[in-house]
Every structure is written in C-alpha cells, then in structure tokens.
Amino acid sequence: MSTRRDLPESPYLAAVTGRKPGRVPVWFMRQAGRSLPEYRALRQHHSMLAACLQPEVVCEITLQPIRRHDVDAAILFSDIVVPLRAAGIELDIVADVGPVIAHPIRTDADIEAMKPLEPQAIQPVCQAVSLLVDALGAVPLIGFAGAPFTLASYLVEGGPSRNHARTKALMLAEPASWHALMSKLTDLTVEFLRGQIGAGVDAIQLFDSWAGTLSLADYRQYVLPHSSRVFATLAEYRVPMTHFGVGTAELLGAMGEAGPTVVGVDWRTSLTDAAARVRPGTVLQGNLDPVVLLAGWPVVERAARAVVDDGRRAVDAGAGGHVFNLGHGVLPETDPGVLTDLVSLVHSL
User: Which residues are in the Uroporphyrinogen decarboxylase (URO-D) domain (predicted)?
Assistant: First the structure.
C-alpha cells in the first residue's frame, strides 16, 4: 500500500531508499524553529502546544528552513508529546524545561485509565501535513513521533529527567505493568504516524531520545518489542522510516533490528563504526556534533568534510547510503547563516 508522491529527483528520498543520490542530502533535526529569528517572531504570539495544533502556523514554521537553508527535506513542526495531549493527557511544554505532565503515571490504575488516540484528535496535524504537501513542491516531508520508551519516560517521570530513575524502576520491578504501558503507547504512536502518512508525509522518523539510558540487555527485553511493532505495523505503507536516539552507540544494532530503513547516529560514534553494528544495507543518518556549529566556520568546514568522508567509508563498508545531519538537534544559539553555508558546502561535496 502506498500513497506517496512521486519525487524522483529528491536526493533525500534516493538516499533513504538505497538509491544513489545526485548529491549528499542534508537536513537538520530541529531545523524548524529555535535558531531562526522568523520562528521566534512567530512564536511570540503562540505557545508551543498552540503552535503545534494550528495548521497554518505549523505549515509556516516547517517551511521557514526550506526557504532559508535549501535543505533536502522538511520535517513537520510538532512535538513528541502532541499525541499524548490529543489522547487526553494533561500536560504543558514549559519554556526552558520541556514537557511537564500534570498527573504522572505511577499505578496500574493510571495505566488502565489511559485513552487511545482517536483519529479526529489529530486532525490539525493532518491538515498541516496536507497544506505542506501542496506548499513544498519537490521537497519531501518527514513526519515523526516519539518512540514508546521516550513517551513512557516523560509520563512516568512527570517531565525531563537526568537518570530516568522512576521509569527504570517501574520497568525492572513491575514488568507486567511496564509492558501494558508500552503497549498502549505503541498503539498511540502507530496511530499518530498512520495519520501523518495518510495525510501525505513522504517519510517518518521515530525519536527514541532517551533510549541511550538503557543497557543493551534491558533495551532488548523492555523496549525493542514495542518499537519493532511500530515499524512492522507501518511497513505496509512503504515509506522510508528512520530510527534515532541519543547516546545509543551500544544499541545501534538492536535499533536497526526494529525494522527501520535508516538508523540515525549521534556524534559519539563514527558512521564507519555504526555501519559495522547495523545490518548490511541499512542507511545511516548523521552525525555532526551540533556544538561544532558554534566554533567558527573553519572548524565547521573541517568537521563537515570529515562527516561526508566518514559517510562514504560507511557506504563502502556496507551501509545502504548516507544522509548528512547533526548528531542531535540544532542548538538555539546557532547562527542560521552557518547552517545555510553548511548545506551549501555539503551539496558541493
């Protein structure tokens, strides 16, 4: 089953489907927002959650880096907690803190009370996707969602956490409750991504931002079955699917086993090493350290060239392709001009 647009000239779609792109494709996580003055000006009139649920605002913010940087893909402006809010969980995105959950999940009754995500609850997101498909022309659109483990961490901790202590304690001490929670979050994630795919996104990315806090054994036992179900359920749509986490060097092989087309790599692991950890033919995405962008152009140019060279070595070592990206999101203090110059440099290589 496929309802995808035909974008044969897209370097990004060529790379993530194992074809040879005309140039090294590049896009940036968190390219929509944060570092852009036009984004900050728009956000003065909208809270983060409100912005994520207004289709015209989502469309405008998503388009801003396309106009400015000439990146090879757009990523939908949203937040990983949007489907939680749509499913009735009371939360807010607090400036300089992140998502804060009003009533954290602590008991079996809390888990049982969680409601499924109804398609109509995410209509604003789907409407934004439809607007973007019309507006982007030949530029592909990436949809995304938070992976079940990362969503579970926010729900159990009540917000961002350094050690994820409550989350891991629940996981280890009460595995039946844990898997019940993860099963509900897997259903929610699938529905959120299914809605985006139905509205027309060309690819998806699953962010397991906090998976790197786990050992490989714990990841395999408590997380991998649920992430695998996300990818297995959505495979029928035949869209390229990326799996990304931070600090996941030891998990890259298992994350690749979950079933994505592409595995994202952070800056701690070389792309060549990553190619040896994932299945042959897996496309790799990454992996410039976002902090490099603050160090001046000579440093940026040298580091970017090194990433492109490393990507070529990774392909020679069996990777299915390479998409240039950062190893995590654009930092707010990044000079947008440096990002524009970086895209131009990568395209020239």
Answer: 25-34, 142-158
